[in-house]
């Protein structure tokens, strides 16, 4: 076993050779992507139509690095409105073929088109007339010839120094999968609301939270009447803890009292009523508005809370900036 201390390393601070290699890899892979964009694989439109018309799912598969790409493509398809799943070719030969139905479409990834672990998958699909779409670099390969549609990758070199490690080919395969997913997404009319259904967690989910899902309602609201004296208004503002008071005329929001309003009316404040101090026609948002939109309004106007009203101006609730921050909307 060789001693790792014998492995040559770049001199300390000498980043140029390292950066040159990185740039070379990126240029090789980038050139292949541009080539594929200029010369989109024949059959791309047919593949989109075949997937769009399928009653079942897209079943992706591949071995090794191609398998990782196929797994990612299935995840991207599923999250953008096209149900998909990944089946490992080795596991398929030991029972997982049962995951594939006659209503499905298979999307197989194999750079050489001769991956022997894929043979049982291909035979199963041919036996039950399940459509096969293949992404490969070899038009005369077994997999390409057995496919209904073969999407050929560009004839571009791998980016590794010995030309063997899957690099350019896997990058192109993944990008082609993205192109399929986004094309299908647009054809299905998959919008932001639908996206949120599949992404309720994390940062993406937070961006699509609705104001109505987060706002405070009922007894939590700091409600005051126009005639209420400021002493009582201050008690209400302190007790509710939002730093604002909502001035109500029946069910309609007539104004808002903020800390800034208190400072502006500090002289003789306790002799005034809520009507005298409130800011009329305050900024509001609808319950079906996005929380990210509400946060933008609060930041743009330097306010910490935003009343939520319906189309007629009736109060629905109150959203505080801290609610947005806790939910990860910022």
Describe the protein.
- The protein is an alpha/beta fold and 330 residues long.
- It has two domains: 22-190, Rossmann fold (3-Layer(aba) Sandwich), CATH 3.40.50; 211-326, CBS-domain, CATH 3.10.580.
- The protein contains 15 helices and eleven strands.
- The protein has helices at residues 16-38, 44-53, 65-79, 89-92, 119-127, 142-145, 168-187, 192-198, 202-207, 211-214, 230-240, 259-264, 274-277, 291-300, 321-326; strands spanning 58-62, 84-86, 105-109, 132-136, 149-152, 223-224, 244-249, 252-258, 279-280, 305-309, 315-320.
- α1 packs across α7 (168-187) and α3 (65-79) runs parallel beside α7.
- The radius of gyration is 30 Å and the shape is elongated.
- The protein starts with 15 loop residues before the first helix and ends with a helix.
- Residues 1-8 have low confidence and may be disordered.
CATH third-tier fold name of the largest domain: Rossmann fold
**Number of domains as seen in the coordinates:** 2
CATH architecture of the largest domain: 3-Layer(aba) Sandwich
CATH homologous superfamily of the largest domain - what is it? Answer: Glucose-6-phosphate isomerase like protein, domain 1
Question: Into which percentage range does the β-strand content fall?
Answer: 15-25%
Number of strands: 11
User: How would a textbook summarize the main sheet?
Assistant: 5 strands, parallel
Q: How many whole angstroms does the radius of gyration measure? A: 30 Å
Task: List the total number of helices.
Answer: 15
């Amino acid at each position: 076993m060789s001693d790792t201390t014998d492995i040559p390393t770049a001199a300390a601070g000498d980043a140029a050779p390292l950066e040159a290699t990185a740039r070379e890899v990126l240029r090789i892979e980038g050139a292949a992507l541009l080539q594929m964009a200029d010369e989109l694989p024949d059959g791309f439109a047919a593949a989109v139509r075949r997937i769009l018309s399928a009653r079942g799912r897209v079943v992706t598969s591949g071995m090794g690095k191609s398998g990782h790409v196929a797994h990612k493509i299935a995840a991207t398809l599923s999250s953008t409105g096209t149900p998909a799943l990944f089946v490992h070719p080795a596991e398929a030969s030991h029972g997982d073929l049962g995951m594939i139905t006659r209503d499905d479409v298979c999307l197989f990834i194999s750079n050489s088109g001769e991956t022997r672990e894929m043979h049982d998958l291909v035979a199963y699909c041919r036996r039950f007339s399940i459509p096969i779409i293949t992404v490969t670099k070899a038009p005369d390969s077994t997999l390409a010839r057995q496919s209904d549609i073969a999407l050929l990758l560009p004839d571009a070199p791998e980016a590794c120094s010995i030309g063997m490690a899957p690099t350019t080919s896997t990058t192109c395969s993944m990008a082609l999968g993205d192109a399929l997913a986004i094309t299908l997404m647009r054809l299905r009319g998959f919008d932001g609301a639908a996206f949120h259904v599949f992404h309720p967690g994390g940062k993406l989910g937070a961006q699509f939270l609705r104001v109505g899902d987060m706002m405070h309602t009922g007894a939590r609201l700091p409600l005051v009447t126009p005639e209420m004296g400021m002493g009582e208004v201050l008690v209400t503002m302190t007790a509710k803890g939002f730093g604002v008071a909502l001035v109500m005329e029946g069910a309609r929001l007539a104004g808002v009292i903020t800390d800034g309003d208190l400072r502006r009316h500090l002289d003789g404040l306790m002799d005034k009523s809520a009507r005298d101090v409130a800011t009329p026609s305050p900024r509001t948002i609808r319950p079906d508005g996005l929380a990210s939109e509400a946060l933008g309004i609060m930041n743009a106007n330097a306010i910490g809370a935003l009343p939520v009203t319906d189309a007629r101006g009736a109060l629905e609730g109150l959203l505080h900036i801290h609610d947005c921050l806790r939910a990860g909307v910022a």
